[in-house]
Amino acid sequence: MEQNMLSLDGICCRFGDTRAVDRVSLDIPAGQFVGIIGPSGAGKSTLLRLINRLVERSEGGIHFGSREITGLRGRALRQWRRDCAMIFQQFNLVDRLDVLTNVLVGRIADHGLISSLTMRFSEAERELAFHALDRLGMAHKALERAGNLSGGQQQRVAIARALVQRPHVMLADEPIASLDPGNATRVMDALRRINREDGLTVLVNLHTLDTARAYCDRIVAMRAGRVMFDGTARQLTPDVVRDLYGTDGLGQIDESVTSTSLRRLELA
């Protein structure tokens, strides 16, 4: 198996009678930027949480290179969550702490219990965190309370926190859904820059087709827990989009696919 390839083999996740993810198989080479699209309830967020082991699979397996992920426990699971950083729509920062300390929280997986509880970090870790903030254009906010930042700034701090984990894979669950267009562009630009400069594998759930087409090497579209399309932006034609989101026209398509998006597809 290729080193650092992320492989999902028939992965399923059931909640009662509902199959949130239904027999998904994907091979994602190292360094690829993958956008996951689909209507609400398609299984996009659950898929990322399965990879990060925030929810447990019902069937199937996940491998990263030669490492089997679905059976990890204890320290090995904590190490995987360090290697597979997760960015959420809600930012998950501690408002009362300064920005630099929020970023340093990304180093906790490498600490013992006592140093984690007391938030003791080395000078080298502080330099790492400051450098991550600088890459995200947020170094000047390092000593400001996280709660004072705008949504877009908080999301960039969350990305810096993920960066200091020194991950191999970065998962982003609708990271721009609550941001205005300007901040959404800054966040997506940052993710693409990290992908290209660091060679990180990036999987990002997106609610707009235009964003997926602009940034992603590969687009995976889900519906009802299943992968219905897997290809490049150019292959995602208007006919494919209509098939993915229903045969009754735009009335069946949620906010992730607008008539403007389809017109741009037709002109591409």
UniProtKB/TrEMBL annotation:
Listed GO CC annotations: membrane
Keywords of this entry: ATP-binding, Cell membrane, Hydrolase, Membrane, Nucleotide-binding, Translocase, Transport
Keyword Phosphoprotein found: no
EC number, as in UniProt: 3.6.3.28
One Pfam family this sequence matches: ABC_tran
ABC transporter domain residues: 6-249
GO MF term (any one): ABC-type phosphonate transporter activity
Coiled coil: none
InterPro entries reported for this sequence: AAA+_ATPase, ABC_transporter-like_ATP-bd, ABC_transporter-like_CS, ABC_transpr_PhnC, MetN_ABC_transporter-like, P-loop_NTPase
Superkingdom as given in the UniProt entry: Bacteria
The keyword Signal appears for this protein: no
Official protein name in the record: Phosphonate ABC transporter ATP-binding protein
Gene behind the chain: phnC
